[in-house]
Structure formats: structure tokens, C-alpha cells
Amino acid sequence: MSANYAQLLNALCIKKQIKAIDKLNEKIEGITILKGIEVDILKDGSLDLPDDILGELDVVVCSVHYDRNMSKKDMTERIMKAMDNPHFNILAHPTGRLINERSPYEIDLEKVLKKAKESGCFLELNAHPERLDLSDRYCRMAKEAGVKLAVSTDAHSTADLDFLRFGVDQARRGWLEPGDVINTRSLKDLKKLLVRRST
């Protein structure tokens, strides 16, 4: 994997983690651990893990971390091409902004939302206070386009889980309701949503 945060997480390690999670799910009652990963959307629109690994996961979150200085047209096409991958579930921090630190990359979000709707993909509302990505305006745009969002904390430690409240506040500012957010669903309904329909 190309991202530094992955800490050399390779296909073999991921397969071991998948098996470990399966074993835990057999033992634990009353809770299910979903198998998921965040992968990079590479410059050419491919994902940085092979499909045979991605196919074993319950949820695949895809994001741009590198090569951010592309034209609006190229960045939009890059992300839409990635959405063609049948394992793509959620576009993470969709504009890439860091508040007061980094501007959003150039992207035609209207086109991306249309593609997400057609493909059965979702967008993230990243609740980290340095991101709050999507903005409230874009949350409303997603709602109007019929694209559901996943509110997530972007937690890199257990302390970061408290960031969820910022995401809920942002969702409310964007006029989102529980039906617009996939992680308000029961496990059964969430799993159905995460199964991609054909494009």
C-alpha cells in the first residue's frame, strides 16, 4: 500500500487480519466486527490493493492522499474511474481539505455524486475537527442527489472516537436525517447497502 499510515500493511498481513477477525466473530456474541480497510486511489484511478483481497472485506473506504495537484477534470475522472471498481464502497474525505491548513483539491463534486448514485457508492462525512469534510453545503448537495453518507471519526486512536459528535453536528447543518446516513442502519441493512449493484 502506498500510504505512510498503512505502515507496510501488505496483502499477507491483511489476509492474516481477515482470518483473525473471522475467528473473533465466531467467538463473540452480540457484536460483529466488520472487515474493512482504507485504500489509496492511485493517480490512474486504480486502487492500491488487488481485487482478490478487496473482495474478502466487508467495507472498502477509498481516498486520495497523493498527487493532489491534478486539474479538476483529471481529479474528477480519477475518482470516478476508481468508483468503477466493484469493491469501492465509500469515498473518504471527498475534497481533501484540512481546515486552515490545506485547501480542497480541485474536483467536480456534482459529477462525483452522480457517479456515486449510479454505482451504489457512498461518500464520507469526515468528523475530524481539522477536516469536517464534507462541508454542510456539500452534505446538502449529496442529500439532494440521493447519495447517502457515512459519518466517521477518522480516528487514529480511541480518544479520537469522540469526534463523532462533530460529524453529527455537521450532518445536521447539512439537513441530513438518519435515513441519509448509512451507519444509522442495522447490521443486516448496512451489509445490504455495502453490496455493490452492477454499474
DSSP E strands, number: 5
DSSP helix count?
7
Average predicted local confidence, pLDDT? 93
For the termini, the CA-CA separation is 26 Å
Proportion of helical residues: 25-40%
Strand content: 5-15%
* CATH fold-level topology: TIM Barrel
Briefly, what CATH class? Alpha Beta
CATH superfamily: Metal-dependent hydrolases
Strand order of the largest sheet: 1-2-3-4-5
CATH architectural group:
Alpha-Beta Barrel
Order of helices and strands: HEHEHEHEHEHH
The biggest beta sheet is recorded as:
5 strands, parallel
User: Which regions contain 5 or more consecutive residues with pLDDT less than 50?
Assistant: 3-8
Computed structural class? alpha/beta
Please give a quick description of this structure.
By secondary structure, this protein is of the alpha/beta class.
Task: Walk me through the structure.
By secondary structure, the chain is of the alpha/beta class. It has a single domain (36-194), classed as TIM Barrel (Alpha-Beta Barrel), CATH 3.20.20. The protein has helices spanning 11-27, 51-54, 72-83, 109-119, 136-145, 164-173, 187-194; strands at 36-40, 59-63, 90-91, 122-126, 149-152. It has a 5-stranded parallel beta sheet with strand order 1-2-3-4-5, with helices on one face. Residues 3-8 have low confidence and may be disordered.
Notable traits:
199 residues; alpha/beta; TIM Barrel; five-stranded parallel beta sheet; 36% helix
